[in-house]
Fold this sequence. Notes:
Layout: E1 6-23, E2 28-41, E3 46-52, H1 61-72, H2 81-86, H3 104-119, H4 123-126, E4 133-139, H5 147-160, E5 165-168, H6 174-188, E6 194-197, H7 204-216, E7 223-225, H8 233-242, E8 246-249, H9 255-263, E9 269-272, H10 276-288, E10 292-295, H11 304-309, E11 316-318, E12 333-334, E13 337-339, H12 352-356, E14 363-368
Helix pairs in contact: 5-6, 9-10
Amino acid sequence: MSSARIVEYRLTRLAFARDRTIGDSQVRATTAQIIAVELFDTVGNVGLGFAQALFTSLPDADEIERVFATEAWPGLEGRYPAALALAVHRVRGGNVRRMGLPFEESLQHAIWDLFAKQSGLPLWRMLGAERSKVGVYASGLDYHLSDHDFTELFGKARERGFLGYKIKVGHPDLERDVHRLDLLRDVVGSDRPVMIDANEAWTAQETIQAVRRFERAGHRIYWLEDPIPREDFDGLKMLRQLGISRINAGEYLDLTGKRKLVEARACDMLNVHGQVSDVMRAGWLANEANVEVTLGNTFLELGVNMALALPGVRWLEYSFQNFDHLVDEPYTMADGYIHGRDAPGHGLVLSAAARANGGALPQVIGAVA
């Protein structure tokens, strides 16, 4: 294992239009606002991560540079990637806060990428994976799409062989949700699981009424994701005990919240996302409680590395976001499964074209020797 330290960074600002409006019952987005974060060690390894501002525009280049240099870089410069990846911190008081820009997940990706490269292993193998592929479901982020665009998207998903389909629900008019489920069945058939995600749109009683209405329309729901507010553990536990569908929750909770959710026995499936250290720790907690883990959206499906490593993970979310051009080679999916990469690290490399123009004139904005 290399003892190389982190000595330099580079930030690349990327902004471009999404190829469709994405969103759910609460939010929508039409542009991608991204910062590629690259960390360099003393022997030339590069760790890559992506910071994404989902619903607000990024500030100008100087402000991005200032935030990273003052809030992120002091904790990185001269440090060993392995030590950063494995450290357990005791954070208290005013230090319990987010950075001024959402660098947290991108730093975990870049640090773990460097750690795995210094170890000479693909990240998923370094995390302990004993398999090389995991099942993928198609997620439309489709709430704001027209019926035509909705059916086009899921028709293509069917052609590509996804193992399941997830749509957004939670419309004020429940019959619109029924209509969307009808459209989905028309275009993909009824031989594969269908999941629904309400993004906390309902109360517990509204959830029961909705699922019963879907059942009367002939729709069997494989899992019900975030039907009610994230910290309503009593409501989630009641829904789980009713057995109307598998309860998939935890997306909006930090690691502490996920622990409380699991301890409350309030979900059948724990939904985790992109921060490598936190995902592995949450997976350990879920495994101890015999709770299934699902991998939600992660940038460019980087979560495949954790999905392969955690026991019992059967599903990884794929949501058709037009990000593939940002890297030289995205992860590959075939026959409903996504595969780990053989290259050391997580295997994603920022493309020269993205660095040059990123679809909308990104800029290289910072480098420190």
